[in-house]
Amino acid sequence: MGLHKPIAYLNKLIKQTLVIVDGMNGDLNFEEGGNLVQMNRIIAGKDPVLIDAYAAQLIGFGIEEVPYIAMAEDIGVGTTDLANADIVELNKDKGSRKIKPSRRVAQLSKHIIEDAACSACYGSLIHALERLHEKNLLNQLKEKLYIGQNFKNKRHDGLGIGTCTSGFDRCVKGCPPKARDIVEYLERYI
Ligand code: SF4
To answer: Which of 13, 60, 148, 180 is most buried (CB neighbours < 10 A)?
Structure first.
């Protein structure tokens, strides 16, 4: 049955009243860890499908790329309708202290020029770069990406990530932007 169908049907059988996702230091690409990406986020909600649809986008996946999410929606577990979801952000973390990067995260960070980026913003960009790598697109990225609070109100002809870089010629807005939004922008751009 693979992995996706059992996940969808397990969620149909087990009724959940509260779902809490530990998004503090999730892994880049492997559930058993090794490449921590600091995002300093906790996500909570009542609808398991909506929560996973939201979390998938935070780490750069389209909902359609995670088959069990649509399967669960089809059998009535919940909804993927993020456009009409009631999403409230609390206690936004503006801290920019970073944990020591793994070798893979350090490799991805070579594409970034960072100055006081919030953890969630920087983590979104790291996830987005890894998703591009998985699509064999990262090697087509020919310029560095700027990110961080110290780029606020600065003009630049580069490509910025996050609302702090809205004075740049090109910018992916959001505070922080979802990794999925960064991926979609870079897919169109490169
Ligand atoms: S855009 Fe927002 S999340 Fe990103 S570095 Fe600026 S303040 Fe932090």
So the answer is: 60
